[in-house]
């Protein structure tokens, strides 16, 4: 049996894209080992159909974190037998590429974003140049590169004259056997439930404006589920503006638990701002989570997000990030029952096309070359 080692720098418990990749490899007959890191606040891993390895590191952020992880990943891969290496994102590419050259192994690279355009690198030219140098050295030499949407694929094609395979972050068709009610989840059954979910609720994601919009929403509660850099800031905003009855925080949840909350929402938010090239062309997981749960979406006009919403008519697009304006859009959903009914029906229809069962074919076509 061929062995595949999949590596990612993230916490494995919530990375659904990588989980689906591992399941696809398993389906094709690979013996799969997924390698990632374990943080102090990491959730326990559920039982999976493949092996996992989480490294506990001395450092959890900054240069020393990346250096430590890349060095330890290199040593780990050096002494492990495998036939296929799968590197997820630029921060795992260097050790994978070195092992490919040393051991003459096959390598597939999956770029989850336009890495050198992430906001964390804005205003840090030395660090940005460092990662760009690695990308420019390795990327042209790669045979198979995957990414998350057409816009990012085009950016890389323009830069490196290389065609990429697009595999979007689309979930499988909903197969939950039991759905918890709002009452069972402790959700107010008489209120309009607005949901903002994600593992990266960070600056420029529109979360601050969503919180302040609740001052002007007539009869709703905003649930913020997940974690990120601005969570503590948001909690302070809620306290200072006396919004504790209108905004509820729930920490990061396992995938199956999060889904229970998603299906009980009335409206899903994805409000990322066009402040950098990576956000501009992003296509968030939560957009498809909302659609599969039959939850209409209020979204910012990012290229790929707008394309999906308008093609399938599953929500509305905001024109700006003023809190009063966002509140007006939410209130429109709240009062227009007929429009909400249409949007919910369109979500169900869209899910029959936008699902992993269809999207996975593209990934299979890449990996089957290495069987």
List the helices and strands and how they pair.
Blueprint: E1 3-11, H1 16-27, E2 31-38, E3 51-56, H2 62-78, E4 84-88, H3 93-103, E5 106-111, H4 125-138, E6 144-147, H5 150-160, E7 165-166, H6 182-185, E8 192-198, H7 207-213, E9 220-226, H8 231-240, E10 247-250, H9 255-262, E11 267-270, H10 277-280, H11 285-292, E12 297-299, H12 303-312, E13 315-317, H13 323-335, H14 337-351, H15 356-367
Parallel strand pairs: 1-2, 1-4, 2-3, 4-5, 5-6, 6-7, 8-9, 8-11, 9-10, 11-12, 12-13
Helix pairs in contact: 2-3, 7-8, 7-13, 11-14
Describe, in plain words, how this protein is organized in 3D:
Helix 2 (62-78) runs parallel beside helix 3 (93-103). Strand 4 (84-88), helix 3 (93-103) and strand 5 form a beta-alpha-beta unit. By secondary structure, the chain is α/β, with parallel strands linked by helices. It is built from 15 helices and 13 strands. The mean pLDDT is 95. It has helices at 16-27, 62-78, 93-103, 125-138, 150-160, 182-185, 207-213, 231-240, 255-262, 277-280, 285-292, 303-312, 323-335, 337-351, 356-367; strands at 3-11, 31-38, 51-56, 84-88, 106-111, 144-147, 165-166, 192-198, 220-226, 247-250, 267-270, 297-299, 315-317. The strands form two sheets. Strands 3-2-1-4-5-6-7 form a seven-stranded parallel β-sheet, with helices on both faces. It folds into two domains: 3-170 and 356-370, 3-Layer(aba) Sandwich (Rossmann fold), CATH 3.40.50.2000; 182-351, 3-Layer(aba) Sandwich (Rossmann fold). The longest helix has 17 residues, at 62-78. Helix content is 42%, strand content 18%.
């Amino acid at each position: 049996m061929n062995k595949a080692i999949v590596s990612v720098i993230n916490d494995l418990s919530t990375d659904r894209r990588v989980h689906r990749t591992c399941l696809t490899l398993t389906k094709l007959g690979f013996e799969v080992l997924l390698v990632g890191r374990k943080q102090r606040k990491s959730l326990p891993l559920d039982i999976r159909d493949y092996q996992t390895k989480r490294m506990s590191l001395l450092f959890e952020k900054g240069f020393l974190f990346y250096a430590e992880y890349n060095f330890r990943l290199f040593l780990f891969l050096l002494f492990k037998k495998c036939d296929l290496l799968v590197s997820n994102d630029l921060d795992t590419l260097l050790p994978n590429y070195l092992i490919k050259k040393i051991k003459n192994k096959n390598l597939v690279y999956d770029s989850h974003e336009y890495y050198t355009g992430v906001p964390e690198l804005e205003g840090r030219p030395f660090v940005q140049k460092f990662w760009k140098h690695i990308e420019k050295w390795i990327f042209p030499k790669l045979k198979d590169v995957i990414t998350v949407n057409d816009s990012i694929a085009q950016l890389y094609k323009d830069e490196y004259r290389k065609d990429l395979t697009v595999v979007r972050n689309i979930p499988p068709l909903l197969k939950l056997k039991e759905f918890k009610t709002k009452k069972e989840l402790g959700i107010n059954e008489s209120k309009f439930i607005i949901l903002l979910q994600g593992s990266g609720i960070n600056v420029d994601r529109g979360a601050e404006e969503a919180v302040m919009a609740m001052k002007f929403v007539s009869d709703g509660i905003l649930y913020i589920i997940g974690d990120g850099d601005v969570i503590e800031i948001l909690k302070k905003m809620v306290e200072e503006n006396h919004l504790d009855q209108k905004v509820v925080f729930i920490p990061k949840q396992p995938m199956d638990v999060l889904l229970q909350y998603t299906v009980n929402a009335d409206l899903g938010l994805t409000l990322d701002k066009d402040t950098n090239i990576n956000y501009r062309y992003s296509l968030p997981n939560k957009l498809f989570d909302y659609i599969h749960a039959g939850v209409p979406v209020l979204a910012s006009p990012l290229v790929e997000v707008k394309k999906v919403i308008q093609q399938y008519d599953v929500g509305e697009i905001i024109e700006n990030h003023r809190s009063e304006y966002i509140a007006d859009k939410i209130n429109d959903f709240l009062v227009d029952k007929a429009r909400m009914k249409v949007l919910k029906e369109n979500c169900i229809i869209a899910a029959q096309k936008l699902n992993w069962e269809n999207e996975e074919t593209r990934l299979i076509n890449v990996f089957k070359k290495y069987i």
